[in-house]
Specification:
signal; 309 residues; TPR-like_helical_dom_sf; Serine Threonine Protein Phosphatase 5, Tetratricopeptide repeat; Cathepsin B, Chain A; elongated; alpha+beta; Peptidase_C39-like; two-stranded antiparallel ribbon
Length: 309
């Protein structure tokens, strides 16, 4: 078995040696080299690279954790390792938003330059004989064609870029950054960020989801999904007046969004504003279900006007 392993690894290296010079992506403002200083390092025990790599990222975000404390959360004994879904779930459980990167080297470099360690998955074997491994990218050096990793028992390991790219490709270019919900990754785009925020909301982490939606709204004020998510998260936390205000703003900014009108109508009906609720439902060309009887002072109900069509 050891001879077979050696032969296979030799074959991988020979194949890599025949490859052309790797192309570093062009990125305006990107430096020739960069290393994130002060990223903690945890040596990886056998088959437990997942807990060690995750603890590295959590500690960098000032989350107290150790590989030992994460084993039960992410290590799957039957698999002899950690699955990506467990890694993401554990990050969320510790209050961080797990953001998937685009499958390209440039995304990793931008995040590193912004001070965000990148959790990557590699296949150190072959497609038909995989050896899965987690590492944390903390730097790069274009001039020397190197990527800098915290990996296995080696802190700040300088790895040639070509074998790194090959092993990363064999793991389907899986890469994540994990940030607090008030901090966007350098490569953040609306849909992946809002999807990650929605995942936190579904897990019941409502204050964190609310913050993630507010962060998105500050960055992308014209993204109706950000305000929609914020309004829903406020409502789920019992902040009905704030939710109502957000839904009213949403229907003014994005009147074509039917779901916004329907949620506004439902909230108005529960507030005891049946007339306003029916108007809101009518703006969505939808009949409102039987509304409850008015409660309290209906003069406090907002006036709803459909946009001109």
């Amino acid at each position: 078995m050891h001879q077979l392993t050696a032969l296979l690894l030799a074959a991988v290296l020979l194949l890599g040696g025949c490859a052309s010079q790797p192309q570093w992506p062009e990125h305006t403002g990107s430096s020739a080299s960069h290393v994130i200083d002060g990223v903690p390092f945890h040596p990886q025990e056998a088959y437990q690279c997942g807990p060690a790599a995750l603890a590295t990222v959590l500690n960098h975000r000032s989350v107290a954790s150790t590989p030992e404390s994460l084993v039960d959360q992410v290590y799957v004994p039957e698999r002899g390792g950690s699955l990506q879904v467990e890694m993401v779930a554990a990050a969320r459980a510790h209050g961080l938003l797990a953001y998937p990167l685009e499958p390209e080297l440039g995304a990793i470099l931008q995040e590193v330059e912004a001070g965000n360690p990148v959790l990557v998955m590699q296949n150190l074997g072959l497609d038909w004989w995989p050896q899965w491994h987690y590492a944390v990218v903390i730097g790069y050096d274009r001039g020397r064609d190197r990527i800098i990793l915290h990996t296995d028992t080696r802190p700040r390991h300088s790895e040639p870029i070509r074998p790194f790219l090959a092993s990363w490709a064999r793991a389907d270019h899986w890469a994540m950054v994990m940030t607090p919900p008030d901090r966007l990754p350098a490569t953040a785009r609306p849909l992946p960020w809002l999807t990650a925020a929605s995942d936190m909301e579904e897990l019941g982490q409502l204050p964190l989801a609310e913050q993630a939606y507010r962060t998105a709204l500050a960055r992308w004020p014209d993204a109706p999904a950000a305000r929609f998510g914020l309004a829903n998260s406020l409502y789920a936390q019992g902040e009905r007046e704030q939710a109502l205000s957000q839904f009213i703003t949403l229907t003014r900014e994005a009147p074509e969004l039917t779901a916004g009108w329907l949620n506004l109508a439902t909230l108005l009906a529960r507030r005891g504003c049946p007339l306003a609720a029916r108007h809101a439902a009518g703006c969505a060309d939808t009949a409102l279900p039987e509304a409850p009887a008015p409660r309290g002072n209906t003069a406090a109900c907002p006036l709803i006007h459909c946009p001109a069509k």
